[in-house]
Amino acid sequence: MGDKFSDPASLVAWSSQRQKATEGLGLREEVGVSLEVLAVYFLLLILIALGGKFILSPLQLLLKIALRGGAGLIFLVVFNLLSRFTGYDLPLNVYTALYCGYLGLPGIISLCFLKTWL
User: Fold this and answer.
1) Does the pLDDT of residue 24 top 70, yes or no?
2) What whole-number distance in Å separates Cα of residue 96 and Cα of residue 15?
3) Contacts of 1 (CB under 8 A, 6+ apart)
4) Average confidence score pLDDT of the chain
5) In 8-93, which ranges are continuous DSSP H helix?
6) What is the pTM assigned to this prediction?
7) What's the distance, CA 36 to chain centroid?
8) How many angstroms separate the CA atoms of 22 and 57, rounded?
9) Which of 3, 71, 80, 90 is most solvent-facing, going by the fewest CB within 10 Å?
């Protein structure tokens, strides 16, 4: 332990001082769990609460992304078919399909604004 605690009396004195200091702060030393461990447990709990269903099955997440991308592609194809009358079309690619699949009609509207202004 080093030179500071070479005799048992100094170790006992240091232990009692530390116990008094932690009691004054409202901390309990008997638990033996550090603050870092509690922080990691808390973050894992939040992660499980927010996205726990995808932790158990990553295939569900991939399936959900694929279905939304397919729906976005259908939205874009229908929009481009109707654009023959207006002359306004949107590009068909993976990014626009996923974007429109995730946001739906607001996604198509925002893509129209982006194409107009950019």
Assistant:
1) no
2) 64
3) 11
4) 77
5) 8-24, 35-56, 58-86
6) 0.50
7) 20
8) 43
9) 3
